[in-house]
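Hi Y.,

Following your request, here is the sequence exactly as I used it, all 347 residues.
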Amino acid sequence: MKFSNTLINWYLQNKRELPWRKTKNPYFIWLSEIMLQQTRVAQGLSYYLKFTEAFPTVFDLAKADESTVLKMWQGLGYYSRARNLHFTAKHIANDLNGEFPSTYKNIIKLKGIGDYTASAIASFAFNKPNAVVDGNVYRVLSRYFGIETAINSSTGIKEFKTLAQSLIDKKQPANYNQAIMEFGAIQCKPQKPLCIFCPLSDSCVALQKNVVEKLPIKEKKLKVRNRYFNFLVIKTDDNKTILLKRKGKGIWQGLYQFPLIESKKNINKNELITTEEFNNLFPHEITISLFNKKEIVHKLSHQHLHTQFWIVETKKLPQAEINWNKVEKYPVPILIANFLETYQAKK
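Below is the corresponding structure, written out as tokens. Let me know if you'd prefer a different format.
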């Protein structure tokens, strides 16, 4: 009990004041948890406030169209989170009469919700004794107990979940779960943890063995794939352009992009204009220039996108139906959003 009591006492004195900690509303807690996956609190906070203002209830989110949700999500990345969020909001609003499930067993059945999120919602909204295990929890437990099992292995996932569940304070599970996550976020940090001021330092195995910086252990990641993107930024004489909605199950599903020619390596202008895709798109005379003189490398979890933006000026194109004044209304990947910000500033 010393472990859980120490963490809760530390939390009550050191916790950050965050809006989702001041509510038991499962809708708001669910929003915050989905947004904070793979996202720092400092970045996620503004999105949370924006979403709760625009969609104060699950019914409001359910009624929105997907394009609006994706546009508001723009910049958070991992857009499948937003699509699943919208899908589940419609399910809760339309099939469950707006009532959020109250048990881990039923919460985890919802699309886009895994073990961690289901445990968090059950605990924070309904005070159920379901232990959360996120990156912060893995780090605290692996260091304190000196566990060398890889946290991203199937064995490790089971081992840490079992341990976390055995440690939870069943009288105040919400406080305990918040405490161990907050402790990992601001005390037992990934780099330069504050061991000298740690209330658990006298019993931390990693500190005693001088292996704090080596834990937790992760198995090697999958090989990163390099891809080469050439975006054709079209501007017609009547100030129109083309934006295409990405389909399929790949990256950026549901977002918009300029016409794309993917190549096997970085290509120059002459190589680009001789491609079949380019010639099919531009039957008339064009003026073309490379906007970014140095390739932009956009890093995703398992892909590095080596990107060039080509400005193509031409006469009227039947496919070019979007006025440049309307471009900012479309949800686009952050890679394109950053380009547009720079491009518009230089015009």
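DSSP finds 15 helices and nine strands in the chain.

Thanks again,
Q.
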